[in-house]
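Take a record.
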Amino acid sequence: MQTLPNIAPLAPGLLAGLAACTPTGGAQGDSAVKPDYRGTETRLLDSDLVEIRARVSGEGAGEKAATDYAQCAAAQYALVRGYGFARHVRTNVTEEGGIWRADAVYTISPALPQGLKTIDAEVTVADCMDRGIPTV
């Protein structure tokens, strides 16, 4: 009769490795489920102040998905206007009927603005593309 080696000491490591293969266990804990990006509206409030309204729905939708979508649109808008930076001013998020809406305001500028919530537009747009978030 042949005996099998005792693998009990390896079991926790094997289970941890399998857990990393699940669709929801990505490197940053991101869900594999993506929201339905339903479009953005952009309104220039002043020469350097822009309002972005973003809408998301679906299984992966929520406050973070809506604010991320607005930030991606703001970064792209800054680039389109010839600016390299943006600074987050405020975001209001609401949900109604399964549609999450972010109403966000950003300043845009050619140089890095003062403040804690600054955005490098090129880096942010590249990150949005990597994450599958539309910027237009």
